[in-house]
Amino acid sequence: MDKKKVFVAMSGGVDSSVAALLLQQQGFEVAGITMQVTDGADSALDDARQVADHLGIRHHVVDFRSTFQETIIDYFCNEYRSGRTPNPCVRCNRLIKFGALQREVEKNGGAYLATGHYARIEEEGGSGRFLLKRGLDVRKDQTYFLHALSQEQLRKTLMPLGHLTKKQVRSLAADSKLTVAAKRESQDVCFVQGSDYSDLIRRLVPEAAVPGRIKDTRGTVLGEHRGLGFYTVGQRKGLGIAAPEPLYVVRINAVDNELIVGARQGVYRDSLVAVDVHFSALENLEEPLPVMAQIRYQHRAAPAVVTPLEGREVQVTFGQPQMAVAPGQAVVLYSLDGETVMGGGTILT
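The structure corresponding to this sequence follows.
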């Protein structure tokens, strides 16, 4: 296997395009590879091809639509059926992009898969263990979505944008006359058009769009919700009920199709239990460990102690109660300086 042969996961955006550009400048033998995961993504494919042509590199397209449906979209639907708030990007990175796609790279003789993520991968002092660290551009850091990558996946991955800011990336793209230099950034889940999941939920998870009762924490019926799939723990807007004080979603009861609401203080939790926990910076967790814990992408990591439980479960206890701990979302555990991903899992309660 040629150690200089790299396949860049090209999405048609500026980040992956500049990743390909930088690796080419560093002397790697670069090829582009694009995943087709849904129908109707022709414009992204065209943009990726144009950049590959501009750079003079080969471009491959792999059809993962069936795998993506079974692994990501079906999971997305099942989580909403169960009253949880899914995080498809975490699952996609672990199983599709750095799983199925990385295997495709190896089949084609590539030594590495490279991506345009804002994160850093560094070897820990010659130990053979690879650490995932936050990107230099804190506002763009994507380690939250990458925390579940295994040592084998990290070892075979390059992330050349980890030491750059978004502004620098756009400047590099413009200097090299890449057609995507000014392309608007997508903030959406790739299989959802826009930021509104309503149509997708009604189509794929109709049972999550069945109206039901809204109750307060004492069991009093306050109104009717539109369907549990349209709500998440901590949500205040869009409840459609009048009350003397602001009400928040405290709990989602999928068994009885009920939305439980309450005052703001009812949304705070001083601990959580996470399942399917993976540790990347540790061999395993044998005793309580102080960490910084992040419970969603836009959340500021907070001091906590993570304690091992049975199997692949842990309890995370916060120094100060945290708002809107949503089952189904990821909790990512960082070192005390907030830089290195120690591990993470899926919030159960």
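The longest strand covers residues 268-279.
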